[in-house]
Design brief:
With 249 residues, the chain is α/β, with parallel strands linked by helices. The chain has nine helices and ten strands. The protein has two domains: 132 residues, D-Maltodextrin-Binding Protein, domain 2; 107 residues, Periplasmic binding protein-like II (D-Maltodextrin-Binding Protein, domain 2, 3-Layer(aba) Sandwich), CATH 3.40.190.10. The strands form two sheets. It has a five-stranded mixed sheet, with helices on both faces. A five-stranded mixed sheet has the order 7-6-8-5-9. Helix 1 packs across helix 8 and helix 2 packs antiparallel against helix 9. The two termini are 20 Å apart.
């Protein structure tokens, strides 16, 4: 019922919308966010979208402590579901995109080895997002365990605060990193080539990363928040997510 009300509200004249909204967004979406905001502003030029990027776990803690976010785009469904159950979110979590893991290295690697690549003698440091707060980090650990390499390489792991920081580590402080595939579609990453510097992690090794969106209590009855929520679930946004390597529902 609420979703129908949201859709109805955004069918109103765009001229009625103005102001600034604050939204919390999982770090993996940072690479697509500029494009998403640009497309949204074509529809609602008078709405300013202020984005706070971090790991889903940290953003959830901020929301519970009263942070002024009207909407939350998480890296999995766990955190928005918890916020909905606690009453901090007013809409049931919906999947806006499905994320994928990839390996990244500044050096040429033999990705035909699959997950066993990380066991190599030439790999001394492996960048991974903190699995306690970052869903992509949790998925990376799961992939290594399911691939039978975790116990052999756990001492090589270098933990980053978020999945975006993991990219930085993979490019500077580690030999390889488990990153969000979406980061590879940023123009800044064009120099890194598939099959040479990066490759997909087999999706059979980890649980699909269903990314969830909710309107938060502080965004209740806010038409600008409702407009952005509806946009993220629209075909226009889904095309952008697809262009950045996500699987869209």
């Amino acid at each position: 019922m609420f979703k129908k009300m949201v859709i109805a509200s955004v069918l109103m004249s765009a001229s009625l919308f103005a102001g600034t909204i604050n939204i919390a967004v999982a770090a993996n979406v940072s690479y697509a966010m500029d494009t998403l905001k640009s497309e949204f502003h074509k529809l609602y030029p008078d709405i300013n979208v202020h984005v706070t990027l971090s790991s889903s776990g940290k953003l959830t803690a901020q929301i519970k402590n009263g942070a002024p976010y009207g909407l939350f785009m998480a890296a999995n469904m766990k955190y928005p579901e918890a916020l909905y159950k606690s009453g901090d979110a007013i809409t049931r979590p919906l999947i806006y995109a499905q994320g994928s893991l990839a390996y990244l290295s500044v050096k040429k690697q033999d990705f035909n080895q699959g997950i066993t690549l990380v066991e190599g003698k030439n790999i001394s440091k492996i960048a991974v997002a903190n699995p306690k707060t970052a869903p992509y980090g949790k998925a990376a650990i799961q992939a290594m365990k399911n691939g039978g390499v975790y116990d052999k390489v756990k001492d090589k792991l270098v933990y980053a605060e978020s999945i975006s920081q993991t990219v930085t580590y993979a490019l500077s402080a580690a030999d390889v990193g488990f990153i969000a595939k979406s980061s590879l579609f940023s123009p800044k990453m064009a120099q890194y080539k598939k099959g040479i510097n990066w490759s997909d992690v087999s999706p059979k090794l980890y649980t699909p990363i269903n990314q969830g969106i909710v309107i938060l209590k502080k965004g209740e009855k806010n038409q600008e928040v409702a407009a952005f929520y509806s946009f993220i679930l629209s075909k226009r946004a889904k095309k952008i997510f697809n262009d950045f390597g996500y699987i869209v529902p």
